[in-house]
Amino acid sequence: MSNHRNFNDTFLKASRGEKTPYVPCWYMRQAGRSQPEYRALKEKYSLFEITHQPELCAYVTRLPVEQYQVDAAILYKDIMTPLPAIGVNVEIKGGIGPVIDNPVRTMEDVERLGEINPAEDIPYVLDTIKLLVNEQLNVPLIGFAGAPFTLASYMIEGGPSKNYNKTKALMHGNPEVWFKLMDKLGTMTITYVKAQIDAGAKAIQIFDSWVGALNAHDYRRFIKPVMTRIFSELREKNVPLIMFGVGASHLIHEWNDLDLDVIGLDWRLSIAEARNMGITKTLQGNLDPAILLAPWPVIEERVKEILDQGMAQPGYIFNLGHGVFPDIQVDTLKKLTAFIHEYSSEKLGQ
Amino acid sequence: MSNHRNFNDTFLKASRGEKTPYVPCWYMRQAGRSQPEYRALKEKYSLFEITHQPELCAYVTRLPVEQYQVDAAILYKDIMTPLPAIGVNVEIKGGIGPVIDNPVRTMEDVERLGEINPAEDIPYVLDTIKLLVNEQLNVPLIGFAGAPFTLASYMIEGGPSKNYNKTKALMHGNPEVWFKLMDKLGTMTITYVKAQIDAGAKAIQIFDSWVGALNAHDYRRFIKPVMTRIFSELREKNVPLIMFGVGASHLIHEWNDLDLDVIGLDWRLSIAEARNMGITKTLQGNLDPAILLAPWPVIEERVKEILDQGMAQPGYIFNLGHGVFPDIQVDTLKKLTAFIHEYSSEKLGQ
């Protein structure tokens, strides 16, 4: 598949707001526990072992593309991947999530954070990308990174959090420390993402998964400056840039101001509602993944509605509003992809 | 304090959209673990024991009114309170939340659910209300209930949930069972709330805490019918009706259609943004409780902004955007209440 004559660039075109012959799609967390092949691998290897072995990681990344025939691959890894390189001890604990035993809460803690050198610190990520892009994929590979707020929330709380109390207390109570932390995480993100693009990633999704816990007022003051810097520095690399967060409907106006190409919506706001609110970027989303647990006619009805809204103007990519759940069936995702392609190519003609 | 000559009805007036000499306030979860007296009580008694002893429960309910000088009391109890009466085995597990060992997932499960008879099933709730209203409080007592979606989510999942997969799968996959369940929970809620009002509750807050997990499309189809019925049946009791949910900014248009008086906002959307979106009800909210962990000048600045937005038209009640966290200091809430009263009475004159 290294032959790029057959390269499928539908996803990239839609990202840039261009017309496409059908609606491209991919699914957040398309590689993972919903796939029997992945579950079998996980009996032999840990997440750490999979991501550190390029051949294995490329296989996991590629698998859903081959099974579902989606229009993009997303590199299999975790948003925590770059943190150990700057001195944050991350351990992924089953049933809990990422746990950090040296939380960052003071100016000294922030000053102690180092810089990332991708070639030295995460060569396995870059090798996986090269392998996929140069030899294996005929669809674009999406690289990604966690955004500074979301990463900071784990670093400050010491793990997953419900209310982000410590994070917000630091933000509001000690803005100097906060902005220094944003500055360092911003630099790390830029370096990390540029390395992914240089290795061959054809688009980048920034996951600010938990930033919906802030209101627009706080977003503008505490988050938007670093996000503006990140997107403006990434722009020179000339690949589509995607922004996504959960429960962040009240922040998409702010995202629409940033120099990015695609806004990913969770399922809370419809594509039509977002357009009515004046969102001009390409939209990506937004089937509630829970609907994939319902019978097919229910899925089909809802997918049609979403596609009809998405196709109302160019610049639309189908996705779920959140990651694939482990109990969603492979056959459902196969059928879903085929339906999206068929229904949208009929409507969009050619 | 049984003498009602000194009854403070500022909260009730604001609920009804009338002018008030100052902005009334109360705080969700104002009674609870943030208070040292409560923590001392909890060393001797369980939640179950406190809520089942009217004298004790009235004391816990009254304590924040006396300490903070807020303008309303809210009955100390749990949204799960009515469920055992209809046959749902609820156990509140520390560190987890409500756990239910007989989840409701089939038509048979739903048909098995009984009806609530408040005088027989929850006499302690009604006795607590009477004691507070007839003998102790000089501010309105707010009664409350969980809304059908939120209760159903615990009943179907068997406990707290992150993604509400089983709940949504039932809703989408088996609407007949879903609507039967909504019907039964609607009837229970109406009976339960009416009994609280008859016992003396002067206002009612309906907590649809987790309904923000649905989009407006699903809300209109699966939730709005039962909420319409609940509010229309409660209307005859002629007390202010308040609606609240977390992360539900995208649903407040739907709430604005319902026959209720007050919409409670979490901190994600500002009072001004909600007004700009066309929300006409009294608004209640919406300081992010995490800000109460920051130094006082930060709190004061944010509270002023919220008050200025709230006072732009009659029909505003100050509250937090979520419950008081256990680590928020009593002195902070005292100072907050005094500041709200002082600042708003200066601005509103009289």
UniProtKB/TrEMBL annotation, chains A, B:
Substrate binds at residues 29-33, 48, 78, 154, 209, 322. GO terms for molecular function: uroporphyrinogen decarboxylase activity. It catalyses: uroporphyrinogen III + 4 H(+) = coproporphyrinogen III + 4 CO2. PROSITE patterns: UROD_1 (PS00906), UROD_2 (PS00907). Its EC number is 4.1.1.37. GO terms for cellular component: cytosol. It comes from the Bacteria. The record marks 78 as: Transition state stabilizer. GO terms for biological process: protoporphyrinogen IX biosynthetic process. Belongs to the uroporphyrinogen decarboxylase family. This is Uroporphyrinogen decarboxylase. It comes from Calidifontibacillus erzurumensis.
